Amino acid sequence: MSVDVHRESTLARLMQLGYSREQCEQAVNIHGNNIEATTEYLLANPSIGATIANIPDSDPPAPAPPADWQRVDTGISSTVSASTLSAARAPYNPLDVLSGADTIKILDSGDGWVVMDGHARPMVFACEESTWYGKLFAGKMRQVEFLLLDLDRRPIVSMKKPYSWGSQCSTISISPPAPPPGDEAAPEEALGIVQQEWDAFQRKLFVTDATPNHAAGTLLIQAGMTDRAFKITLNGEVLGTITQPKMGMGVANLELVPGALDPFRSNRMRALLICASLMVCDMYWSQSPGSATILKVIPH
Hints:
The protein is of the alpha+beta class. Helix content is 22%, strand content 27%. It has a twelve-stranded antiparallel beta barrel.
C-alpha cells in the first residue's frame, strides 16, 4: 500500500509540537495538509490536542519521519522555553516574509516589479503571464495570471483574472512547493478572491479571505473617479490606503494602520492586498509588471 508522503510529513511536523498521532490525524482529516490550518485547529480545541503552553520543556519522543523527510538540527539547547522551542520547529510558510509589514512599496525596477517593506527590503517579486495579443486587443479586460515569487524566483502566490468586459472576479491561491522527483504536485491552496465591480461614481474592489469561519469580513477598496488614493475599509473603518507615487520607480504604495490586520490571518490578508494593489495598477492605472523571465535586478 502506497504512503501519502505529504500527509506523513504534515503529521510528523504536528507531532513535533507535542500532539499525539491520533490528535494530528483528526486535524489533518478536517483541514488536509495545511500546516497553518491544522495547527490553529488543534490550538482552538484544547479537548482535541494539548496547547503549546502545555508542552514540557523536555523534548517529546520524536516520531518516525517519512523516508524523504530530513530532520533539521537547529542547535537549540534543551533548556530553552517551550514557546521558543515551538517557534523554532514551526514549518516554513512562504507568506512569513510579509510578517509585520504595514508599509509595502511596489517598485518598477525596469527588469520587473519588486515588492519591498518600509525599510526598502525586498520581500517578493511580482510578474504576470499573459499573451501579447491579449494586451494589444483586450487591454485590462484580458485574461492574465499575476504571480508573486519569493527571492529565489519560486511562485508562492497566484492570482488568475479571467477575460471579461464587465465586473471581474480574480481567484488567488498559494502555490505548492515543487514535489520531489516522481511525486505528484500538491494542489493549490485557496487564499481568497478580489472582486472588481463597475460603478458610475466609484472604483470598487472587494477582498475576501477564503479561510472558512475565520475571516473577519470582506474588505472594501474604493476611490472616487477623481481620487488619487484608494481607501481600504472594513465596516466603514479605514484600515489603510493604496496610492500611486507621483514620480520615481514607485508603482504603488500600500499603507496599513498598525494592527489593522489583527482580526485577520494577517500574512494571508497582506498577500491578498498586494494582489489587489496589482489589480488596481492594471485596471485603473494602466500599469502591469510584465513577464517573469526578466526578474534579475536584485542580487541573489
